[in-house]
Write a structure and sequence with these properties.
about 350 residues; alpha+beta; BirA Bifunctional Protein, domain 2; two-stranded antiparallel ribbon; elongated; binds adenosine-5'-[phenylalaninyl-phosphate]
């Protein structure tokens, strides 16, 4: 090493060019395995030849120092670039040799990278929420494990009301004194109460989420289902507003040619109550109505319970069955496909 250091100490800009030549020539002859060693010899942090050269700048005569420093720095950068290029070139050559020697069959199809995607029900849920978002509805959320006070009492389904039979409930707690309090929500309607508890009119929200019912499953019924609750409360809200909003939703979701129908229905927390159905093509070429949501004008008592004056404020509410919407959208004939985790089914969406 000693003679090299000596020669560097006395190096001039000219001898920098000599060094460059030597470094590049040896690099050209260095194979993959020797590249690290080449790097250590020329660019090593401690005693690489170019490092020492850079360190010797201060020993140059003052009027040569600037030019010398610049040339030495340029050399360092050039050698780093050359090293990277050499690495790339060697790698490329290696691949080419592998390919032409037959060790790799370049005509084989590549291995597909599996791409994740949203479950069809999640996709539909997001689209529904987006449609209402465009109409000025904000998104709120509520718990899946719910109190009877919100799931039933708050929406006018008292303990002894026959309407409680409408939802066969999955209870979470034990019966205490003939009463149970904690359950898996059977619908998203408890959020009507929860939202009105924390917000003053004007209210315009949608509340998406899972619901659970002790239900015998069939082609259109699951025991776990997804709903999107909608609630609008303000001065002067009328039934025509509800119909207009739901009609617009159906148009945006299913396209212009889909027909919808409203017919009267009973829910204790609305008056009047309706169900909305969409026409669904049947196998024999006809159509039938498929109910996708329940809705109605919020019952004045629910408004009063929330502490609002029902002579001033009116509202509408709806609860959309998301699986049913997804079924209509893609022509799926059995709701049970969604939750059987069959990837051949799920990958289609
Ligand atoms: C309700 O759950 C009411 N909370 C809806 C409502 C909200 C009415 C606000 C008025 C005002 P219903 O049980 O009909 O109503 O369910 C609403 C929708 O959820 C149905 O139209 C249907 O699309 C879907 N649905 C109900 N039960 C099931 C089930 N077992 N499997 C799949 N989807 C279901």
């Amino acid at each position: 090493m000693a003679p090299i250091i000596l020669s560097i100490m006395t190096a001039t800009t000219n001898s920098i060019e000599t060094l460059r030549k030597e470094a590049l020539e040896t690099l050209e002859q260095t194979g993959e395995a020797g590249l690290d060693q080449w790097r250590a010899e020329w660019l090593g942090r401690q005693d690489g030849r170019v490092t020492l050269l850079l360190r010797s700048v201060r020993d140059q005569p003052p009027d040569e120092r600037a030019a010398f420093g610049a040339a030495a720095n340029a050399l360092k950068n050039d050698l780093e670039d050359a090293l990277n290029q050499r690495r790339e070139a060697l790698k490329k050559k290696q691949l080419e040799t592998l390919a032409t020697s037959g060790a790799i069959d370049v005509t084989l199809p590549g291995r597909p990278q599996p791409v994740g995607r949203f479950h069809p029900v999640t996709q539909t849920l997001r689209d529904i929420v987006a449609v209402f978002g465009e109409m000025g509805f904000r998104v709120a959320e509520g718990p899946e494990v719910e109190w009877a006070k919100y799931n039933f009492d708050g929406v006018r389904i008292p303990e002894d009301h026959p309407a409680r039979d409408m939802w066969d409930t999955i209870w979470v707690d034990k019966e205490i004194g003939g009463r149970r309090d904690m359950l898996l929500r059977t619908h998203t309607s408890p959020n009507q109460v929860r939202v009105m508890e924390r917000q003053q009119p004007p209210i315009r929200v949608v509340v998406p989420g899972k619901c659970y019912r002790q239900e015998a499953t069939d082609a259109t019924h699951e025991w776990m289902l997804t709903q999107v609750e909608g609630l609008a409360v303000d001065e002067g809200i009328r039934m025509s507003d509800l119909k207009g909003v739901l009609y617009e939703f159906a148009r945006r979701m299913f396209g212009q040619d889909r027909h919808i129908t409203f017919h009267h229905s009973y829910f204790p927390f609305v008056e009047p109550g309706v169900e909305m159905a969409v026409d669904w093509p049947t196998a024999d070429g006809g159509t039938r109505w498929v109910e996708i949501l329940g809705a109605g004008m919020v019952h004045p008592e629910v408004i009063e319970n929330a502490g609002f004056d029902s002579s001033r404020y009116t509202g509408f509410a709806f609860g959309i069955g998301v699986e049913r919407v997804a079924m209509l959208r893609w022509g799926i004939d059995d709701i049970r496909h969604f939750y059987q985790n069959n990837l051949r089914f799920l990958r289609q969406f």
